[in-house]
Amino acid sequence: MEQQITREDALTRKGYKHACHIMLYGDSSAKLFGKIPIKHIVLITVIQMQMRFDGLLGFPGGLVNPSNETLEAGLSRELHEEVGVAVPVGVDNHVSTCLSSSCPGLITHFYIKKMAESELKELETAAVAKATDHGLEVLGMVRVPLYFLRNGGGLPYFLSHSFISNSRAQLLSALQRCRLLSQGEIEKAVSQAEQMRR
Ligand code: GTP
Ligand code: MN
Ligand code: MN
Ligand code: MN
Ligand code: MN
């Protein structure tokens, strides 16, 4: 477990680097696998993560220097670079701050923002068409499969991939915080993913 500290405490510490990442998500109308007739369009929750240059999954965002910019302005700048839209981020979007255990000297700040369907759509297009880091730092945005198929398909297989730093734990806590899945569903996904990694 990573050690949690407050955002305020983090900003008083000297000699640390700061990284800010965010879960952008929202409802989107879709036809699930085309199997559901058009008149039965369902709302699915879209969560944006990314395939990083290093082959790991993670959230959009990056290093912020608090002596040049606020954490939130820096995160917005990173979003402009990585997804092509400078999504505004406020202190009200902040959810947790940790002393990174995998990377000593790094403090990681996590944010969550719910977006409208049209904004999510714009973002998915811009991530390919406009983002300066597309194909460089970021190989592509990916949606998180928030469902269960037979034999561990869906979320369990997604969780069995490799994630940067504690981004997997950030995803799991966000699913719970935003009530996107029940506690039982989250535990089921984690335990099925665990069996695949053996
Ligand atoms: P450069 O512009 O190349 O420096 O990259 P960046 O500013 O976009 O930084 P990056 O997104 O790689 O994040 C910096 C550091 O934060 C990484 O080396 C990881 O240790 C950590 N990190 C990256 N993504 C995540 C994430 O989704 N969650 C958490 N908790 N940490 C992350
Ligand atoms: Mn970046
Ligand atoms: Mn980044
Ligand atoms: Mn950067
Ligand atoms: Mn960069």
Main attributes of the structure:
198 residues, alpha+beta, Nucleoside Triphosphate Pyrophosphohydrolase, 8-stranded mixed β-sheet, 6 helices, 8 strands, 32% helix, binds guanosine-5'-triphosphate, binds manganese (II) ion
Layout: helices, strands, pairs:
Blueprint: E1 3-5, H1 7-12, E2 17-30, E3 42-52, E4 57-58, E5 61-64, H2 71-83, E6 94-99, E7 106-114, H3 117-129, E8 138-143, H4 155-159, H5 167-177, H6 183-197
Parallel strand pairs: 2-7
Antiparallel strand pairs: 1-6, 2-3, 2-5, 3-4, 3-8, 6-7
Bound molecules: guanosine-5'-triphosphate and manganese (II) ion (4 copies).
The site of guanosine-5'-triphosphate has 17 residues, from strand 2, strand 5, strand 7 and helix 5.
How would you characterize this protein structure?
The protein has a single domain (3-146), classed as Nucleoside Triphosphate Pyrophosphohydrolase. It is built from 6 helices and 8 strands; from the N terminus they run E-H-E-E-E-E-H-E-E-H-E-H-H-H. The two termini are 21 Å apart. By secondary structure, the chain is an alpha+beta fold. Strands 1, 2, 3, 4, 5, 6, 7 and 8 form an 8-stranded mixed sheet that branches. The structure holds guanosine-5'-triphosphate (GTP) and manganese (II) ion (4 copies). One manganese (II) ion (MN) is lined by residues 62, 78, 81-82, 133, 137. The site of guanosine-5'-triphosphate has 17 residues, from strand 2, strand 5, strand 7 and helix 5.
Mean pLDDT: 94
Count of the domains:
1
- Total of helices: 6
- CATH class annotation: Alpha Beta
Strand fraction band? 25-35%
User: Number of DSSP strands?
Assistant: 8
Give the CA-CA distance, first to last residue. Answer: 21 Å
Q: What form results from the Cα inertia axes?
A: globular
Which H/E pattern describes the elements? Answer: EHEEEEHEEHEHHH
Kindly report the name of the CATH homologous superfamily: Nucleoside Triphosphate Pyrophosphohydrolase
